[in-house]
């Protein structure tokens, strides 16, 4: 049985614990919030936002970031001094029968510290590591620019397919309306069966095109969702998004050739070539021997003839570079530097040719688009409306109406295709010029 005093103690204890819990609440650790997916339409219109999203989510970019961390660690390691060496020794220990029993032998022990002094090697080794760190950072930027261009291309394909789908569905609605009018006129004997059959056949053909494009749109959407790790919902205004996507500054396009050496993938090759030259310098300096300086202390307890039991030693060990002088390794490093420089020149030539071709094609596409949008499309719309009205009033047959509708449909589809081609060219130019890597937000990399 619990006494009244014990019950009062328990009540006071419970109240005290409740007060402490109220004053110092215990919070469970909150799990880290997952990266929230931004709207895909905003990523397509904003290069910096797209670059930031790819930098956070793309595993290939994470691998490139790990390579930067490894290169940074190598750079720090290259600047370290060699570790000193500690040696301990003992001698004058008798292990057999002594010749003279009146002589008391005692062990002698010693301790020493050696340090290797590098001559002319830490400088080129550290410089090579620094250059490789800079090359890894430039390779990271180049890879980021390529990943952003690929992600934008996936988004652009979804927008293009969506724009085509909108055109096809609008054309299908008009074709179904025309077929309904044809059926009505057929019932009243105002149209022939052949005209109605043409309208119905055109409706079926358009419905088939709508379904095929819808399947292609779904496939592009699935591929884009997987590529960007977010829902690529850009179907509502695909044509408008394509016009805004992949902006290309005019000044950058004009001065692209002058800024060729500033592109990340070319700078990475330049830095790797310079690092190979530093490796050659390091290998050639192997002919300089690295002395090892030793400072030692010895305590000799042999009392028979030892007047100085405590002594210090100072010595130098000098390796002789008679056989391995780093000649072949230096030649290999110089050959590697020449190889990288030749690769840089070849890539620069290819990039310049690609850039010139892209600019010429972009100019031609923009001129064609301007002509079609300003002149051809308004005329086609007017012709289609006039043909529709004439058909409803019985002035046109099905053949004239189908011809006007088909020309308008083909023109609108051509406009959608040209808009996508212009977007693809601008996207490739941004990758070629390294603009997407420059548009990425500043990070620790």
Order of helices and strands: HHHHEEHHHHHEEHHH
Number of helices: 12
**CATH H-tier superfamily:** Outer membrane efflux proteins (OEP)
Task: Just give the CATH class.
Answer: Mainly Alpha
Tell me which oligomeric state these chains represent: single chain
Q: How much is the average pLDDT?
A: 81
Strand content: 5-15%
Please state the structural category. alpha+beta
Structural Rg: 40 Å
What is the helix fraction of residues, given as a range? 55-70%
CATH topology-level fold name: Outer membrane efflux proteins (OEP)
Please describe what this structure looks like.
It is built from 12 helices and 4 strands; from the N terminus they run ααααββαααααββααα. With 445 residues, it is of the alpha+beta class. It has one domain: Outer membrane efflux proteins (OEP) (Up-down Bundle), CATH 1.20.1600.10. Strands 1-2-3-4 form a 4-stranded antiparallel β-sheet, with no helix packed on it. Helix 3 packs across helix 5 (122-187), helix 4 (59-78) runs antiparallel to helix 5 and helix 10 runs antiparallel to helix 11 (398-433).
């Amino acid at each position: 049985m619990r006494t009244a005093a014990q019950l009062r103690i328990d009540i006071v204890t419970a109240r005290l614990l409740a007060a402490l819990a109220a004053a110092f609440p215990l919070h469970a650790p909150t799990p880290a919030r997952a990266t929230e997916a931004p709207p895909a339409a905003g990523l397509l219109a904003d290069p910096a936002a797209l670059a930031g999203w790819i930098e956070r989510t793309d595993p290939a970019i994470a691998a490139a970031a790990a390579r930067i961390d490894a290169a940074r660690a190598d750079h720090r390691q290259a600047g370290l001094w060699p570790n000193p060496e500690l040696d301990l020794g003992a001698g004058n220990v008798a292990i057999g029968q002594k010749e003279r029993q009146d002589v008391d032998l005692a062990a002698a022990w010693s301790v020493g510290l050696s340090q290797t002094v590098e001559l002319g090697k830490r400088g080129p080794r550290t410089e090579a590591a620094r250059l490789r760190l800079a090359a890894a950072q430039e390779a990271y930027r180049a890879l980021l620019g390529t990943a952003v261009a690929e992600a934008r291309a996936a988004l652009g394909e979804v927008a293009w397919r969506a724009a085509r789908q909108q055109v096809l569905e609008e054309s299908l609605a008009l074709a179904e309306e025309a077929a309904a009018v044809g059926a009505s006129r057929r019932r009243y004997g105002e149209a022939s069966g052949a005209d109605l059959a043409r309208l119905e056949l055109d409706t079926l053909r358009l419905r088939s095109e709508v379904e095929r494009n819808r399947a292609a749109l779904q496939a592009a959407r699935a591929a884009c969702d997987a590529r960007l790790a977010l829902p690529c919902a850009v179907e509502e205004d695909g044509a408008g998004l394509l016009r805004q996507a992949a902006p290309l500054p005019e000044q950058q396009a004009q001065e692209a050739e002058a800024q060729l050496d500033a592109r990340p993938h070319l700078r990475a090759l330049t830095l790797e070539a310079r690092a190979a030259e530093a490796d050659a310098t390091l290998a050639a300096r192997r002919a300089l021997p690295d002395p090892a300086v030793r400072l030692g202390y010895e305590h000799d307890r042999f009392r028979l003839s030892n007047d100085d039991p405590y002594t210090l030693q100072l010595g130098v060990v000098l390796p002789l570079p008679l056989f391995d002088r780093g000649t072949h390794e230096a030649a290999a490093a110089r050959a590697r530097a020449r190889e990288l420089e030749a690769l840089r020149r070849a890539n620069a030539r290819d990039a310049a040719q690609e850039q010139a071709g892209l600019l010429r094609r972009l100019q031609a596409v923009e001129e064609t688009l301007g002509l079609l949008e300003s002149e051809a499309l308004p005329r086609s719309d007017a012709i289609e409306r006039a043909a529709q009205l004439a058909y409803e009033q019985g002035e046109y047959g099905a053949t004239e109406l189908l011809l006007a509708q088909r020309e308008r449909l083909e023109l609108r589809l051509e406009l959608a295709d040209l808009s996508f081609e212009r977007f693809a060219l601008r996207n490739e130019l941004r990758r070629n010029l390294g603009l997407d890597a420059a548009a990425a937000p500043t990070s620790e990399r």
